[in-house]
């Protein structure tokens, strides 16, 4: 039902969904960029409903408890528990927790926003890269291009060498048109 609604809205607004869906998408990290507006979330949800894929995003375990779970769970939230399993042990990093999620599940599509904010950020968080490389999953480059009115997945990267791969990722996103262009920047370290 929601998929039909999205297709109808896309038709009357002139938006399209990129049909470049790689077969390995059942297990991957998807970058969501540019991320300059709350509308980006709508286009992401819309395009993935058209793809018929269940996307997930990570959130602190406290946000997956009632009453918040009434919203976070249906929208694809997946709890991250970084607390130590034994007394006197250190907390694991967010990256380690996400790698663990991939080792525990056969199918997992996690969306991340490496910009980390809807404000301009010239240095992206690179945890997504380390997660993908250590979990052995590809990185799909999800995007929303407001000038072309298209959203979806544009390219797939298989992590090999960080410097080279990050340059390829930044090259892809340099041509994207954010809703608020002044709030978007690729990572200047890899341009």
UniProtKB/TrEMBL annotation:
Which Gene Ontology terms describe the biological processes this protein takes part in?
phosphatidic acid biosynthetic process
Family matches, as InterPro entries: Plipid/glycerol_acylTrfase
Name the domain of life this protein comes from. Answer: Bacteria
Q: In which pathway does it act?
A: Lipid metabolism
Provide any one GO MF term from the record: 1-acylglycerol-3-phosphate O-acyltransferase activity
Sorted alphabetically, the keyword list is: Acyltransferase, Transferase
- Where does the record place the Phospholipid/glycerol acyltransferase domain? 29-144
Q: What is this protein called?
A: Acyltransferase
Question: Could you tell me which species this protein originates from?
Answer: Limnovirga soli
């Amino acid at each position: 039902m929601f998929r039909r609604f999205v297709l109808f809205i896309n038709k009357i607004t002139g938006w399209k969904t990129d049909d470049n869906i790689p077969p390995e998408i059942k297990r991957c990290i998807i970058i969501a960029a540019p991320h300059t507006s709350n509308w980006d979330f709508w286009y992401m949800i819309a395009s993935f409903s058209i793809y018929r894929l269940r996307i997930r995003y990570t959130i602190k375990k406290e946000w997956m408890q009632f009453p918040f779970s009434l919203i976070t769970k249906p929208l694809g939230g997946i709890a991250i528990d970084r607390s130590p399993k034994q007394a006197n042990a250190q907390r694991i990093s967010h990256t380690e927790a996400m790698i663990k999620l991939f080792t525990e599940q056969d199918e997992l599509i996690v969306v991340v926003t490496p910009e980390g904010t809807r404000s301009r950020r010239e240095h992206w968080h690179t945890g997504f890269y380390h997660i993908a490389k250590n979990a052995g999953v590809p990185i799909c480059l999800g995007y929303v291009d407001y000038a072309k009115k298209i959203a979806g997945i544009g390219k797939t990267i298989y992590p090999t060498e960080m410097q080279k791969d990050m340059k390829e990722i930044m090259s892809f996103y340099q041509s994207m048109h954010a809703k608020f262009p002044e709030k978007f920047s690729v990572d200047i370290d890899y341009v």
